[in-house]
Amino acid sequence: MARPRNPLLSRERIVAAALELVDTEGLAALSTRRLAAVLGVSGPSLYNHFATKDQLMDAVVDEVVGEVDLSMWDSVDIGGWAEPVAAWARSYRAALVAHPHLVPVLAQGPGRWANSLRLADAVFGGLVDAGWARGDATRIGALMRYFVYGSALGSFAGGFVDDQEIYAAEYPHLGQAHLLAEHRRSIDEGAFETGLTALVEGLSRQGPRRPTPGPSAAPSAAPATEARPTP
Q1: For residue 178, which of 158, 198, 192 has the smallest C-alpha distance?
Q2: Largest pairwise CA distance in the chain
Q3: Superfamily name and number for 11-51
Q4: Residue 210, SS3?
Q5: What phi-psi label fits residue 25: left (phi over 0), alpha (psi between -120 and 50 degrees) or beta?
Q6: pTM summary value
Q7: What is the per-residue pLDDT for 7?
Q8: Among the listed ranges 48-57, 85-94, 121-130, 169-178, which one has the minimum average pLDDT value?
Q9: What is the reported pLDDT for 211?
Q10: Cβ neighbours of residue 2 under 8 Å, at least 6 residues apart?
Q11: 68-96: per-residue pLDDT in tens?
């Protein structure tokens, strides 16, 4: 039997093609007609896998979230939350930076996206396992999400025009601003790391710490009247 001229259509192949199209040309380029042409199939054949464009977009954004490493949350000790938070934030940002056109859509989640919910579950569970109260764990997860998405929305350094004359006359403190764009990667990544360090160190001053080995690390019995943190 002769092989089909094009590979058989599957959800995975459709999602991969849609993601590549968005990465290359932006969200506006994604349409049923364009995607079918890229895949070498008829438009209606896509509906056998995705009933609507919204369903397809959900699958595409969830594929991106699936690129985020969550292995650091598999086993978290009491007080051992700082390194997993930092490693997760770096992986999260890397996934978003690799697919910048999808960041505004991803920022609306997690909705019903399986990988997004899996991420939220892993982070929240890891923070609680590390000793944070449930309410604090929720706020920390939200805080880190705001920070990561904000850092991935655009380039600070890339926003400055490479024209010294624009700054020379009226903006004396921006005399070197025209050089920022050519160093955008190092500046943007350095800014992210500075912010990440500040957040983790700030949280460390108010949150659970890794217990010190030895007899002094043994927890004392809490009085019966001590109030417990509200979830």
Answers
A1: 158
A2: 78
A3: Homeodomain-like (1.10.10.60)
A4: coil
A5: alpha
A6: 0.80
A7: 60
A8: 169-178
A9: 54
A10: none
A11: 999 999 999 999 999 999 999 999 999 99
CB 181 within 8 A of CB 162: yes
Domain boundaries of the chain, sorted by first residue: 11-51, 71-208
**Token duo for residue 166:** 């624009």
| Contact criterion met (CB below 8 Å) for 133 and 140 | no
39: number of Cβ within 10 Å: 20
Give the separation between CA 154 and CA 181, rounded to whole angstroms: 12
User: 66 with 115: CB under 8 angstroms?
Assistant: yes
Unique residue bearing structure tokens 């982070």 = 123
Q: How does 119-153 read in b/e, with b if 16+ C-beta sit within 10 Å?
A: bbebbbebbbbbbbbeebbbebbeebbebbbebbe
Question: What does the pLDDT read at residue 73?
Answer: 96
Interval 196-230: pLDDT, tens: 999 999 999 987 865 555 443 334 333 433 344 43
Residue 124 tokens read as 């929240």
Instruction: Tell the CATH topology of 71-208.
Output: Tetracycline Repressor; domain 2 (1.10.357)
Give the rounded distance of the alpha carbon of 63 from its chain centre: 12
- Give the per-residue pLDDT at 187: 86
Neighbour tally for 88: CB within 10 Å: 23
Angle subtended at Cα 129 by Cα 128 and Cα 135, rounded to the nearest 5 degrees? 5
- pLDDT 10s digits, 15-34: 999 999 999 999 999 988 89
